[in-house]
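Morning F.,

Quick status update on the modeling queue. The single chain you submitted on Monday has been processed. Sequence for confirmation:
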Amino acid sequence: MTTSQEELLPGTRRALLHRIAVAQAEGRTPSLVAAVVRDGRAVWHGSRTSVDGHGPDENVQYRIGSITKTFTAVLVLRLRDEGLLDLGDPLEKHLPGTGAGEATLAELLAHTAGLAAESPGPWWERSPGSLRPELTDVLGEQPFLHPGGRRFHYSNPGYTLLGALVEKLRGAAWEDVLRREVLEPLGLESTSAQPRAPHAGGWAVHPWADVMLPEPTEDLGRMAPAGQLWSTTGDLAKFAAFLAKGDDRVLSAETVREMRTPAAPAEAADVVDGATYGLGMQVQSRDGRLLVGHSGSLPGFLANLTISVADDVAAVVLANCTSGPLLGSVGADLVRIVAEAEPRIPEPWRPLPEVDAAVLELAGPWYWGTHAFALRLTTEGGVSLDPLNGVGRRSRFRRNGDGTWTGLEGYFAGELLRAVRRPDGGVSHLDLGSFVFTRQPYDEGSPVPGGVDPEGWRGIG
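Structure tokens below.
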């Protein structure tokens, strides 16, 4: 795939090239390749290399490490959407005898099961997977370090278990299921479990001298679902577009939104850093921008995928060194450069194709006590409720088809909103999870809990 270089302004393209050039030079990596995605497709590709001649392009494979986990999470959520499991299920229900069966599937996806971060024995990323042929070899004798559901603790063995779950329920190897259900539908032809030419070699760069050492390339065996994959910036650009908007051939927009939603309790340091974890995706706040995606590393390789859904911009950055440039920062900067230099142009405003008069009647100001809110109709057929002063609880609501709506976010997520009508058919008030919203502050004509003083509003005299 050859991507167009003409869709970004010359100044933007130069700023992107400058950023990756600084990263490659200061990070002392043999090569670095990057891509930017906007409006669902790659619009820029750049690379820097220490080798004279043709640099790597969007068709050169690099190992992507833990970005593999996001692919594995997609497979698990496909099983959930098909009704074959529930995320609240304990692993034991579907994959008995692991020794970690009390962990729920949601906890494994969000790294909150309390499992150890690494597998016991030799450094698993730099030793053959044949040393860990069974799940018991991956988990060890004491797989749990923390109580389940209490804290975020990144776990490679946890995603090994999820890969085994996929194999059990699909009756096929993880790699085969991934290729059939994700890679082929999304057109990720250059993503594979084993390297395919053209691919970069992995290197370790000496920390105190400009010399290099080749890194071994090991097959991770059982732990493949945690970090095995090789891919290209071209393929990961397509994957980023999918994670932003969904694709009904793989996962719906609603399910990928669920993946991007924080699912792990943050520790104090995480709160300060503005970082948390969803279902197979990292979530962070950076420079006032919400970014989602995943990073990855294996000996000889670094990888990062960063998405700003609000800006409709994503970045992919790959490098072939064990340690070097902070690719998370590079990816975030590439997104920022495009978002600030060429901000997203909104779709034209268009009136609704049709409107229910009974719903339109609800639009406008409402009061919870003395707090003023505005109810608006949304283009998706639902409604939104927002504080008029911009501060406080807000939510969008999904229409249920029976005159009620269900909250989608924030304090009111999952709560039921309904309009309560008087015997004459007029609207008395809104009931939102027992909260009464009235047309006037403490409207004496509405059933305000606790009643309203009969003397009404008054001054200080």
